[in-house]
Amino acid sequence: MATSTSWAQDAITCDLCDKAAQQFCNSCQVSLCETCIQFCNSCQVNLCETCIKKHRDEFKSLPHDIVPFLHKKTQLVFSACQEHIGQRCEVNCKECNKPVCLKCIVSGTHKGHDVEELTEYHENKIRKIKSDMEEIQAKLIPKYQKEDVEIGKKISKSKSKLNDLGKKSKKFRKLWHEEVDNIFNTIDALSQSLTEKNLNALQEYQNKIKDLISKMNITVKQNEKLLTTNSLSEVNDYKSKLNEYEEFPEHVDLRLPSLRSKMDQGKEFIIEIGAYRATLKQISQPSPSADVSRLTTGKGKLMDQVRVIATIPTNYKPLWGVACVGGAEAWINGQNKIIACIDIHGTVRETVTTTCQHWPGKIKVTRGKELIYSDNYSGTVKIVSSGKSDTLITAPQGWSPWGLCSTRSGDILVHFIEWKNLLQRLAGYGSQRKNKIIRYQGQKIKQEINNDEQGNPIFKEGVYSLYMSENKNGDACVSDGNAYTVVVVDKTGRVRFRYDGTPARREKSFGPKT
């Protein structure tokens, strides 16, 4: 029970006007008394003296048990019935789940419905609320608290892993930069080495020239002296050095380093100098769940050993040419007029009898899978259609076709050798000869690869054939066995670079072939 002291300490407000109840009685001129604060037991509200009438007028139809605050009774508040004025709800309709008064049950819309007392309904609700509260406190809150702790641990662990990931990324960044630096250090070293080699060769060549000039000046002075001497013996002892001086020192062929780079953004980066090649390449596209793209670096090198994957028997001895048709068949030829198509087991699938006077030179298969071959003696390149040979290309006057190459664009590269006369042609490999390459589009000459920008021959004279191929850039890659060099020429005829085995040359000399 509250005391006057507690009332003075805890101000009680009127539930209607929200004003604090008086704590001093002006009528009695005394401190707060028990009769100054009223309470409606029926509605369970606090009332000041001013609001008592207002409360009764607002709810005229309902009974009100207004007593001094000291005599208040804490009890359930029964709401007013919505259908019957002046009646409070006393039961709960189970069918409608709605509080109703007794008139509603006896004669109203809820007549015959199953009901329960509101106090019992209230007690059941209280028990449910208490049960839910205990369930939340005893089970759910601890369960969520445990999950909260686990999530906290995961966050902490994830932060630690992400921190480690950042550290590793910095470490790998450094290693990758070191790898790139190593690549370019190697390129710089190769460039310096090739530059020094060329400069040293030029310097040595210049020194020879200067030495010969000095010697010739001395000889001129000696000859001038002899022209004025009257000594018969000195003139008789004179020996001409003209032949010695006319034999000009062999000219130095410069092989300046050529650096080129190709970049396919996000896929591949390639840089080359001479025979050195470095690649940064993405080898797989990342899936949506992948952490990072994988990249691989590779440095080009010459293959020391080859691996035999299959041996296919043939009746050609010697076997001079092989031209693959897909991955299961190939045309082959030797020292006879017949070119045969065999499978991987050596079984002959088809033969072509050529019109050559002796035997065909080189054979090749075009982009359209047509067989072509060079006829050295007649100076033509033949194409085989329905088993019959027809002339595709006729050599320029004084030249004879030898090597062949079919390009991705459908062009045909033909290696021609120069014959000064019929005897030299019959002598074959026994004679020195000039070499050039002509690119044909059908029967039309598209490009002639002969001299460089300075007018010097690109290919050295000699007895060995040129072997041709085409790279992805459309450059003609030619192995010149006469110069022991691989020459790469672009589509405009410009020499991109030459490779003579340096610096990969070791015990054996560099002798490029096919």
Structure write-up:
- The protein has 514 residues and is an alpha+beta fold.
- It has 4 domains: 4-120, Classic Zinc Finger (Double Stranded RNA Binding Domain); 121-246; 259-299, no CATH class; 319-499, Methylamine Dehydrogenase, Chain H, CATH 2.130.10.10.
- Helix content is 28%, strand content 27%.
- The protein has 7 helices and 28 strands.
- It has helices at residues 4-9, 51-58, 102-106, 118-228, 232-236, 242-246, 422-427; strands at 24-25, 30-31, 38-40, 45-47, 66-68, 91-93, 98-100, 115-117, 259-264, 268-273, 276-282, 295-299, 319-325, 329-334, 338-343, 348-353, 363-365, 371-375, 380-385, 388-394, 399-406, 412-418, 435-441, 444-449, 466-470, 476-480, 485-489, 495-499.
- The strands form 8 sheets. A 4-stranded antiparallel sheet has the order 9-10-11-12, covered by helices on one side.
- A hairpin with a 2-residue loop joins strand 10 (268-273) and strand 11 (276-282).
- The longest helix has 111 residues, at 118-228.
- The chain is elongated and about 170 Å long.
- The model is unreliable at 1-9, 29-35 and 283-303 (pLDDT under 50).
